[in-house]
Amino acid sequence: MEVMPALRLVIAGSPAAAVPTLTALAATEHEIVRVITRPATPQGRKRVLTPTPVAAEAARLGLPVLEARRLSELEAELLALSFDLGVIVAYGALVRPPLLEWPRLGWINLHFSLLPRWRGAAPVQHAVIAGDTQTGATVFQLTEGLDEGDWYARITTPIGAHRTAGSLLDELSDTGAALVCDVVDALAAGTAVAQAQQGEVTLAPKLGRDDAALRWDESAESVHARLRGVTPEPGAFTRWGDQVIKVLEAAIARDATPLPAGTVRREGGRVLVGTATHPLELLRVQPAGKQPMAAADWARGLPTDRSPEFS
Length: 311
Fold this sequence. Notes:
Elements: E1 8-13, H1 19-26, E2 31-37, E3 41-43, E4 48-50, H2 53-61, E5 65-67, H3 75-79, E6 85-89, E7 107-111, H4 123-129, E8 134-141, E9 151-158, H5 165-189, H6 220-229, E10 237-240, E11 243-252, E12 264-267, E13 270-273, E14 280-287, E15 293-294, H7 295-299
Parallel strand pairs: 1-2, 1-6, 2-5, 6-7
Antiparallel strand pairs: 3-4, 7-8, 8-9, 10-11, 11-14, 12-13, 13-14, 14-15
Helix pairs in contact: 1-2, 1-5, 4-6
């Protein structure tokens, strides 16, 4: 039996979503010669300098780590390094020539969407917000264009009516890691076949705070999809007067009487908010400066002489 040649790999990634791929590749016969990640950042109220999840996992595995905000900062060092393939998972920066062409097999990218749908930084979030019925992960050949390269392998998963972007990303991080390993093995064996992307191109730019504001004049399905799409980050919120209320969990109350958009009402132990269609039942919220709590507990402090409204 012919033995598959082991590849020398450089892996670039930063957040928790990239850790399963690093762990999986470290368990193969391939050699990881460098791990590239973004620099440590201050975290928490005490602003403790904290390495990225990928840096922490690389340290656990005993792998050499380079920190940089852009790969161009490491150009000289990487061009002096002999490696066969670069693997990127959520690193957060583009690969430009001459680094793009330096490895013998180029660079591959694990992207959490069914390309060409949702090219960009926040594909899972945008898929949920848009009401897509399915999403997935794609391993593709990196090019200079944004997520434009030919793809080697993909997997799909249903989104469902209740899943958040966070839970979907956790699942795709694990299943995507196995997909990357399969593609790396195929590239090593010379059996990998790439296909051109086909279909409508949509973009998934990074979400900002304004994207997380719930819009009560939309349908209940749209409000609920936005809530799930921005959970856990950047986190859905609404305003009650001058207070900001984070909405952590809600459900569509199809059995409830319609309410004017944004109107909050306590009804039989439930906390309902009007939308353009069915009300949304709040389940868990977090008022500013307080811990997360059941919506019913928060609602006990609402005025009884008028119907409060969210905006």
